[in-house]
Amino acid sequence: MSFKKNFVIQTILILVSYLILFLVDTFVHPVEDSLWTLLIFVYIGQLIFYKLDLGYRDNKEKD
Length: 63
Known about the structure:
Layout: H1 3-28, H2 33-62
Helix pairs in contact: 1-2
């Protein structure tokens, strides 16, 4: 599976987890802020890793 396709699947999973967390937070029981913060950091970390990996692949292909 290509890296870009894998990235899209991971992004969709993170967005679905945001939606589930939001629904639970709104209708069932308030969720701690630490869970929201954790998901935000996971998503930002994934974006940074994706950009670094693309830069590495571009440099590798030029050699």
